[in-house]
Amino acid sequence: MTRLLPSLTVPLPHIIHGLSLLVLLAPVAVVSAAEVRDSRPVLEVRDSQRVHLSAVRLSQDNDQLTLRGRASRPIARRGFIPGAVQVSLHDPSGQTLATRTIRPMRPNRQARFSDFFVQLPKPDPMPTGTQVRVVAVPVPSH
User: Fold this and answer.
1) Buried b vs exposed e over 39-63: b needs ≥16 C-beta within 10 Å?
2) How far apart are CA 111 and CA 81, in angstroms?
3) What is the 3-state secondary structure (H, E, C) of 48-108?
4) pTM listed for this prediction
5) Residue 102: how many CA atoms within 13 Å on its side-chain side?
6) C-beta of residue 83 within 8 angstroms of C-beta of residue 124
7) Which tens digits make up the pLDDT trace of 9-19?
8) What is the chain's Cα-based Rg?
9) What is the Cα–Cα distance from 117 to 56, expressed in whole angstroms?
């Protein structure tokens, strides 16, 4: 027992010092995470009766918002996925800043899903409460 105690007491001051630094710096990390969370736009995804949207991811670059996801039928089967995906960027007051309508593409003819990808201009500065809506819509007739 006497041999274990000296070996445990050597790193103990280092552990206490590390824990005290962690306690002091933890509030700074929480505040930074809250600021990052507030600057990200809120993502709203709406399915239709014929199309289910899933795996929708939003990322920010310097001057663009990039959105990608997957469209499929509610009951999975092969073939064409009907409709389109409308992506719109709204400010906190509800005004539309940008809108894109895209047709999802299947990776191959046998696929049970389609992928979509769209880029929107990022407002500078990004106001808190900005919203990105992703809606499955029917294709407009020509």
Assistant:
1) eebeeeeeebeebbbeebebeeeee
2) 10
3) CCCCEEEEEEEEECCCEEEEEEEEECCCCCCCCCCCEEEEEEECCCCCEEEEEEECCECCC
4) 0.69
5) 20
6) no
7) 556 566 666 66
8) 24
9) 10
Strand, helix or coil for residue 3:
coil
Rounded to 5°, angle at Cα 137 from 132 and 141:
135
Bond prior to 125 in cis (omega within 30° of 0): yes
Query: Residue 118 in contact with residue 104, Cβ under 8 Å?
Result: no
Q: Are 52 and 72 in contact (CB under 8 A)?
A: yes
CATH number given to 41-137: 2.60.40
Question: Which tokens in the block code for residue 111?
Answer: 């696929």
* C-alpha distance from residue 115 to each of 21, 71, 112 (Å): 46, 6, 10
The CA distance from 85 to 51, in Å, is 9
Conformation bin of residue 45: beta by default, left when phi > 0, alpha when psi is -120 to 50: beta
pLDDT at 110 over 90: no
Q: How far is CA 66 from CA 6, 13, 43, 117, 132, in A?
A: 57, 48, 12, 7, 11
